[in-house]
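User: Predict the structure for this protein chain, please.
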Amino acid sequence: MAKKKIFIIDDEADITLLLKYSFESKGYSVETASDGVEALQKLNTFNPDLIILDINMPRMGGIEFYTRICDSNNHPQYPVFIITAHANMEQMLKKFNIEGFMPKPFEVFNLIKETEIILKKHEQKTDETTITTSRALKLKTILIADHRKEELKKIALVFLEAGYIVQIADSGAAAIERIFSSVPDFALLNLKLKDISGDIVAAKIKQMAKTSHIDTVIYSSKNETEKSGTVKKSKINKIADYDQPDELVALIDKTLKNKS
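Assistant: Here is the predicted structure, written as structure tokens:
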């Protein structure tokens, strides 16, 4: 079987060298570049199975490099995994169609683990049925994202009372970061999150290998619908309108029952 090819693009020589040695010790073929300009040149002769991309680099940074390898629909030609500082997180999540991300500093072991998950996804070897069955045996964890602090508190309390393990986030960027660091069973996302709308957050979750199996529900209060006078649409999910938070619990309970 041919070796999987990893392309590491980062201007920090010590990180690049450490990652190169670590991946090669695991049997991968590795190429490196110190910036986007060098990386584009090497893509003429190197066809990677995955690109590990830093954001802040000289000459050509990660964002510009990413746009150069994307088609007209902003989809990259190769799977891309981002390593970056938190300062870039929100911009990255809005603009990039990526397989995953990891903030610096990180443990090399964890990065290799994430890489293996992504490569298995693209080989279509992951048995989603097995994953779903094994997760169904655990107490269910739900991530609730809502920018309205009081409403977030109300919804979270109702789910806690219903026996769920609850994680919360007050923005789309925070939701994605939290979901990626501690994967829940469900993501309940307000459609009108201020930074990144709920349906876009759902799309990012489904896109990344580590989180693609998570069930997502987009919601909005009926009061918001009446005020706007418009019908909300989502390309990812049907929008769940609610009057009281317990309606959202009933919806998630029903989803669980249908899957069992």
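The chain has a mean pLDDT of 83.
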